Amino acid sequence: MKPRSSGSVVRLAAPLRALAHRFSFLLLVLASIALMMVGKIESLSVDTARARVTDAFSPILDAISRPAATAARVIESVVEVENAFDENQRLKAENARLLQWKQAALRLESENASLRTLLRVTPEPSVNFITARVIATPGSSFVRTLVVTAGRRDGVKKGQAALAGAGLIGRVIEVGEWSSRVLLLTDINARVPVILESSRQRAVLAGDNSDQARLLYLPPESPVQVGERVVTSGHGGLFPPGLAVGVVTSVSERGGVRVLPNTDLSRVEHLRLVDFGLPGTEFDSSPEWK
Amino acid sequence: MTTTFWQRLDKAGRNLAPFAVTAMLVLVGMIRIPVPAYAPVAPNLTLISVYYWTIHRPDLMRPGVAFLIGLLQDLLIGGPLGVNALMLVVAQWAVMNQRRVFLASTFVLLWIGFAMVMIGAAFLQWLAFSVLNATILPLKPALFQGLLTVAMFPALGWLLIRVHRAFLNG
Description:
The complex is a heterodimer of chains A (about 290) and B (about 170). In chain A, about 40% of the residues lie in helices and about 25% in strands. By secondary structure, chain A is of the alpha+beta class. The radius of gyration of chain A is 25 Å and the shape is globular. In chain A, about 30% of the residues are buried. By secondary structure, chain B is mainly α. Chain B has 8 helices and no strands. Chain B has helices spanning about 5-15, 15-30, 45-55, 65-75, 85-95, 100-105, 105-135, 140-170. Chain B is globular. The model of chain B has no long low-confidence stretch (mean pLDDT about 90). Classes of the chains: A alpha+beta (about 290), B mainly alpha (about 170). Chains A and B meet through helix 2, helix 3, strand 1 and strand 2 of A and helix 4, helix 5, helix 7 and helix 8 of B. Chain B: Pfam families: MreD (PF04093). Chain B: It comes from Azospirillum cavernae. Chain B: Keywords: Cell membrane, Cell shape, Membrane, Transmembrane, Transmembrane helix. Chain B: It is found in: Cell membrane.
């Protein structure tokens, strides 16, 4: 049996509920817009909240990403069996070429070592790799990030470089306890100071949510050629100089200079988060990194 | 006949099905599929689910529920907060207003209706991201994502009907 006193509460609550119900759409729209503004202003606490939620859901994401990865691997292996002969031929040719390069690299390494002893160069700080598995991508047209299975307890820090395959793919922007988020080079918010390898021209690599990134702040008459390699310049102190980033694919008046990242960003399965131990990599207090 | 505690608990659990299924689809939508250029155009499964439940069980897919799911999606995908929340709330409101039309119509009309909602949602998302980044972003990926989502609609719709029958028609 219900107590009688609840009647007055119900009488009071009913119109309030009706009012809230009536304006719920407007209220929620306003709440969404308010959230967008809060996200812009209070990006640090939003990041923390985001990291918590991602942490909480990462076991589920991890679990459901495994069957998908397995299925993809099975399909890929079927395709690979079909192309095994051609692939073998190609790899043999490539191997022969790489053996020549290996000789060159060994010679250069010994030469480098002897020159270093002559000049008393201080050795570069040692680097620590953290290998992590990619468990999720946003599935949105306007955001290019990856969620990976390594977090604070594995030693991941904000601002660390993410490397995969043949080069740099992005930077850690958010660290949870056992998951973290990597901002890819092609995201609209990504900016990496780079240098063109042969012309030594400095520029900033900026993503625009397409598969290729753009070079900003190049002087108007700089001699950029298609096929030129782009590497990090080390300016800004976030990444060390000389990390491979990509290759110039097109130079035009309207589209500017486009750079294709070395690694196919849609196929990254495992990546390495690298702490280069450079001074000034702690960007935890800087709100501009999203 | 009075309902016992367990019956009420069972009913509450069943009534959670639309929310649970939609939240699960948020996660499923984030699965990485190693196909070139797939991630930017991955279908927006959440919107299909919100559309379906708003038409068939508006009492269980209220604006607040749509908002919560959008917020969860915003937090998980790492984009600006509030964009998906806004998109889902507006979509829920638009479908709710035309619910009678949708309820009485055939599957093909439902599909066309969804395509229209998807166009609106893609445009809204594009607008929000463009304003937040203070540039004009290309609209094309959002439209392709919309196309793929519309193509996914029958398959996911069938699945949702199964869930609907299994949990809510008992």
